[in-house]
Amino acid sequence: MENEHHDRPVVVGVDASAHALHAVRWAGAEAARRRTGLRLVAASGLVGDHLPGRAGRRCAVEEVLHEARAAVPAGVDAVEVVVPGEPGPALVAQSHRAAVVVIGDRGAGRLEAALAGSVAAPLVRAATCPVVIVRGSVTDGLPVVVGVDATPVSGVAAAFALRAAAARGVPLVAVHAEAEGSPVGARLQVLGRSHPQVPVRVVVTEGDPGERLLAESRGAQLVVVGSRGFGELGGLVHGSVSAVLVHGAACPVAVVGPGVTSGGWSDVAVAGDGTRAPATPGSRADGPPPG
User: Which range is the signal sequence, renumbered to this chain (predicted)?
Assistant: First the structure.
């Protein structure tokens, strides 16, 4: 469960937008927390040297990388990478050797198409590490929020979110929909024992969990979701709710896709000791009411 790939770098896609520079700053801070390197990846859009305009485009890419490097926090070892073709496939390839892939929200260049167009879903599905869309504001000290259900990918997302909270020294808020006999609360209790210093608060909602995640994002520094849940959060990332979350959350959003298989519920032996995570006032914790 603790396979964090500490030796793998943080990868960030860059283009000529201010949003990409925001992503670079976030990615640099993440690399510093992980004590690993940072890869600044720019896609040239070219698939071969024979195409016209190569020299001009290469010059533009180098300028983009120069600006990106200037945004890297001091003390972070950054490497510049220029890849041919479009950013989506390039970032998928980079994910195989990365701890996390980071992109900006609403960029002015090809990353905008990668996020909002047909590349977005394939990137999340094919990436073998979490994908973070940097948007909104980042306020140190605020909790990490995770949307959970009983599906395997949600367990991986919960494990990632727990480690993120531990690295930041903040609480974890776990949001899931009410379901009869749901094991999520007990699983979170057991999962949390790997990082006992992290307070875990479970928020059970009877309404739309996506809307609750949006609300929680206003008081969070990171929201984490799984991309292929088929339980209470089923369809969250690939449906309309996910589009609202990715484009409407008040803080960065980490999407854990089906290609990310390290950790999660499969590594959790649920203890049947009846313990419960604290619930938000107005909600109830998992499990039947006492008495």
Answer: none
Q: Look up the domain containing 232 and give its range.
A: 144-267
pTM of the predicted structure, to 2 decimals: 0.82
Q: Token pair of 184, please?
A: 């999520």
Task: State whether 18 and 125 are in the same domain.
Answer: yes
Asked whether residue 281 is assigned to any structural domain, the reply reads no
Average pLDDT over residues 203-223: 90
Please indicate, yes or no, if residue 35 is contained in any of the structural domains: yes
